[in-house]
Design brief:
462 residues, two-stranded antiparallel sheet, globular
């Protein structure tokens, strides 16, 4: 091994060891604040936030955004007679876009998503049709002939969650949200507050240098019981802090001490800032809704972004339960209704704060599901329907190509599993470009984007 290789390996070891060094006393994201950074590619002068809303388990696309025109609805009903919405129940959530879809195609939101209809009508919500993981543009003929590269382990939850978040299957070491954080973190007053996770671990927010900071629904996660006491003792807290932050004179120990100090200082900084944004000032969120609780915390953090010196922030929230092989009719309406209600409350809160045009939220999921029912549920699929929301979104219309409905169509690889016609890369490129990522940096953030013609990178919904 050359001296250069040895030095690179040593630094990589120190970086990863420092990030994990306090795993015994704190949540992994709080402890990983010490990762060694590199120069950021961009410095922002204004504020923008992106919020990924991940629906774990694979959301059922057909009962989220449902075909409504008579011919399409008939095909939808034929494929899932026992789990279909009735057409009458969809009348109140029919989307009436400013630009009609070709062929008279129409869609309606799930009845329990009615709270989002005013956002669509007001031009703040945009459905994006048939989005999914791809390596390159793919037709059914190419899929059947195995003549193009495909995402590995299609229809696998863990791998497709990872591929959606990172462009790589399970085991990925960085996600595209974190790689966007790499571009901007050095332009933020506190680099550690660029990528913030309100729901636990996700490769999405891990960058090559940027690391994710964890918060709970009540605020940042403490290394100590709080910043001042440990089991009621200020002296014990002071002693432990000194032990954690004292540099012992070794490379690994010194880095561990720097990580500890940074984590403690960041906790104090965030806690102090949030004290000026009390929970009572965010009354629009529904209770008993875990996703709403996470988005409420995101809104609180956005409200103190200037105090924290943040110019660009990438957030992650999530809700699970969408792997509905059965009981779809009993469970999916309430699940997707909670998503809609939380999103509407979040948008309304950002509007009340005067920052709606600076915050863009979007949905993501492992994959869609089969159109054909699987007893009283649906099976793992591929392409799905997603939503972008915010003041900068060019809503009131649908983006992408409406897929053919049924089994055996040109868009189907079996049981109504859709071959995506919009790749995650194109979906993300549109979001990232609005965020301020240059076309050159898009190739780093999204390693597969170069497989698409540059004219198709941006879908136009921002």
């Amino acid at each position: 091994m050359s001296c250069f290789d040895h030095d690179q390996s040593r630094r990589a070891f120190l970086k990863r060891s420092a990030a994990l060094g306090m795993a015994g006393v704190a949540a992994p994201f709080v402890t990983s604040l010490g990762a060694i950074g590199e120069a950021a590619a961009a410095t922002a002068t204004d504020y923008k936030a992106m919020v990924c809303i991940f629906l774990y388990g694979g959301n059922d696309y057909a009962n989220t955004l449902t075909p409504y025109d008579q011919a399409s609805y008939a095909q939808y009903l034929a494929a899932r007679t026992n789990i279909a919405h009735t057409r009458d129940s969809l009348a109140a959530t029919l989307l009436k876009p400013a630009q009609a879809l070709a062929g008279g195609r129409q869609y309606a939101l799930a009845p329990t998503m009615k709270s989002l209809l005013p956002l669509f009508d007001g031009g703040k919500l945009a459905p994006i049709l048939n989005v999914g993981t791809l390596v390159q543009p793919t037709t059914k003929a190419q899929y059947l002939a195995n003549s193009v590269r495909l995402p590995p382990k299609l229809f696998s939850h863990n791998d497709q969650q990872s591929y959606f978040q990172a462009s790589s299957p399970e085991g990925a070491t960085s996600g595209w949200g974190g790689r966007i954080g790499d571009v901007f973190q050095n332009g933020n007053g506190a680099a550690a507050l660029t990528c913030i996770n309100a729901s636990g671990n996700a490769v999405y927010l891990t960058g090559r240098n940027a690391v994710q900071y964890a918060v709970g629904t009540g605020g940042p996660i403490a290394l100590l019981n709080n910043s001042r006491t440990m089991y009621g003792s200020a002296a014990a807290a002071t002693t432990l802090r000194s032990l954690m932050t004292a540099a012992p004179g070794s490379l690994l120990g010194d880095e561990h001490a720097r990580v500890s100090k940074r984590a403690l200082d960041t906790y104090a900084q965030v806690s102090g800032a949030l004290a000026g944004a009390p929970v009572a000032n965010f009354p629009l969120f529904p209770t008993g809704n875990s996703l709403a609780d996470q988005l409420r915390m995101v809104a609180r953090l956005i409200s103190v972004s200037s105090e924290l010196g943040a110019k660009r922030q990438v957030f992650f929230v999530s809700i699970g339960g969408f792997d509905l092989h059965d009981n779809l009719v009993a469970q999916h309406p309430a699940l997707i209704g909670r998503v809609a209600d939380a999103m509407k409350a979040f948008y309304d809160t950002t509007a009340a704060m005067g920052v709606a045009d600076k915050v863009t939220s979007f949905t993501a999921s492992d994959f869609g599901r089969t159109l054909q029912s699987n007893d009283d549920g649906s099976d793992h699929g591929w392409g799905s329907m997603h939503f972008a929301m915010g003041g900068a979104v060019k809503g009131g219309r649908l983006y992408g190509t409406p897929p053919a409905i049924g089994n055996g169509t040109a868009d189907d690889v079996g049981q109504g599993r859709l071959i995506p016609t919009v790749s995650v890369d194109q979906y993300v490129a549109t979001l990232a470009s609005w965020f301020g990522v240059s076309d050159g940096d898009l190739r780093t953030v999204l390693p597969n984007i170069g497989n698409y013609d540059a004219s198709s990178w941006k879908l136009g919904f921002l």
